[in-house]
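Ticket closed. Logging final result for Transcription antitermination factor NusB.
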Amino acid sequence: MRSAARLYAVQALFQMETSGQTVKAVCREFEVHRFGATYDEGEFAEGDVDHFREVVEKAVNWQGKIDQMTDRALVAAWPIDRIDPVIRALFRAAGAELVDMGTPPKVTINEYVDVAKAFFPDGKESKFVNAVLDHMAREARPQAFSA
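Final structure:
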């Protein structure tokens, strides 16, 4: 349920960035039209609505800090505004969990690497996501990596 919520959170953050919609509008749309919905094209997975909402809201609330952490994890020539918007949304969702949700960093990294694989099945992007999230996690929660 939380894995689906994370995937939906990345999609929602992407949609907010590209459409300019508010957190409230996008969350409502996802909750009404995506979670467990069935369409001709197939069925959407159920998801943890509370976790979805928390990730999206905290990603927006902490976006400045998360983007700065992401920039520090990226090569200087590639600031966050130059990367793929789906990956940018993924970093923001994962950053919310690292900064303000208490999810164990290794769980966050593994879950969002899986999300990257869902969007980019060739594997190249998931390795990039893994490296950046590892750096972000060590910055956000260094105590989780000591010893």
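The domain at 2-144 is CATH 1.10.940.10 (N-utilizing Substance Protein B Homolog; Chain A). No further action required.
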